[in-house]
Structures are given as C-alpha cells and as structure tokens.
Write a structure and sequence with these properties.
- The chain has an 8-stranded mixed β-sheet with strand order 1-2-4-3-5-6-7-8, sandwiched between helices.
- It is of the alpha/beta class.
- The mean pLDDT is 95.
- It has 7 helices and 8 strands.
- The chain has one domain: Rossmann fold.
C-alpha cells in the first residue's frame, strides 16, 4: 500500500515514498537513499520493510536540486553529479523533519528507526548522532570515517554493514570506524566476504545474494530487538 508522505522542513516542503504494512499499523522506518534518488530499488526496500510490519518512508533528499529524482543504475554519471552538488548541512534537518512527519502519521504505532544505503548510510549515522530515533542501520555508508566526532555522540544502537571489497570503505577505514566507536555501548559492525559496494541491490552488478540475505537477517534481528513489530 504505497502513497506519498508530505514533509514540512525548515526551509520548504518535500515528499517521501510511503509504504504501509498490510496490518495498517506499525513502528516507523525512515529509509535514506543512495545517490540515485528514490529509484526502483528504494521503493522495493520500502515495500520490503512494510511487508515486515513497518511503516516505511523514503524522503526525497535531493528536493532542493530537483524534486523526484529517480535514476537507473546505468545513469551513474548523472547520479554522481547530484552527489557532488548535495548539501550535507541541511540534510540532518530534512531527516529530522521526516522522522517528525512519520511519528505524526496515524499508521505509526511505536518508535521510529533509520536505515540508509551508500550516501544514506552516512546520513543514517548523522541521524543517530542528532538523536530522536530508536536505532540506526547503515549499509555501506560512504564517508563515515569523516564524521566520527558526530558518530561518537550517538546514543542509540547502531548496526553497520560493509562489503569486504568495497573500495569506498577499505579495511583500514572500517578499522578506523570500529576503533572510534569501540566505547559505544551498542554498535555492531559486519564485513561481508567477497561483497562489494552496493551488494544488497539485485539490480546492481555488485549484487551478492549471500551477503544480502545475511545482512537482511541481521537487520531484522536488530529491528526486532530495538524497533519491534509484528509482521503483517
């Protein structure tokens, strides 16, 4: 059951792709996009988590540049151009506005968590740092090593997934992240053998079914603990 969520930010309004569980109610999950906008993969992920019993929304984080960006993975050059122009300064405010709008939705019962992929994986950690969410999951977040001072401020549980072959997050970077968060009371970091950046998307050449299934199982176990819902 998909529709749009109207979100009011500090400097304007934007929309998000909203997917509801069959039960009609559940805890909320904010899904943060890759550099390809709200594309088929992000909509599929929202529908997947809705099937797991969550009210899932994908906010349009590129709305200031161009509302409704929806790129195929073959359009990488265009996606990179959006990434280069993306302003990280207002992004945490957009995520906070999305969390607020989702909490206010009549279908949401319980708390709200955040999950992000690639660009969204970094933003998910920033969302954890600013507080106000029950938990955070990051899939192959790019640039987390550059926001470790912010990440250390996070108090909610965090789950980070990385691919062993991801050149964006080589072993030295993952070790740096793990060392910086070693004092955090509830952080889990998993590195998947023979998996590259984007391993979770079946539409990408890097898709790794074993890693994807294992990461999803861990994500659901994490959500069942920190953001419990009854599957619809």
């Amino acid at each position: 059951m998909a529709s749009q969520l109207e979100i009011v930010g500090q400097d304007g309004g934007f929309k998000g792709y909203l997917s509801l569980p069959k039960s009609g109610r559940g805890p909320g999950v904010v899904l943060l996009q890759e550099i390809f906008g709200i594309n088929a993969y992000m909509r599929q992920m929202a529908d997947l988590f809705a099937a797991e019993g969550y009210v899932a929304v994908v906010p349009d984080l590129f709305w200031r540049m161009e509302p409704g960006v929806d790129l195929d993975y073959s359009e990488r050059d265009k996606a990179v151009s959006f990434m280069k122009r993306f302003d990280f300064v207002p992004a945490p405010g957009d995520i906070a506005a999305t969390v607020k709008a989702l909490r206010a939705h009549s279908a949401v019962s319980g708390d709200v968590g955040v999950l992000g992929y690639c660009l969204g994986g970094k933003l998910a950690v920033l969302a954890a740092a600013q507080g106000g969410v029950a938990c955070t999951v990051s899939y192959y977040g790019v640039g987390i090593e550059n926001i470790l001072d912010e990440a250390k401020r996070a108090t909610c549980p965090m789950l980070l997934h990385f691919g062993e072959l991801d050149h964006n997050s080589p072993p030295a970077v993952i070790e740096k992240i793990a060392a910086a968060l070693s004092d955090h009371p509830n952080v889990a970091i998993h590195v998947y053998p023979n998996a590259d950046h984007g391993f979770n998307s079946a539409a990408r050449a890097a898709f790794n079914q074993n890693a994807s299934m294992q990461a999803h199982a861990r994500t659901m176990a994490f959500f069942r603990t920190h953001l419990p819902a009854t599957p619809s």
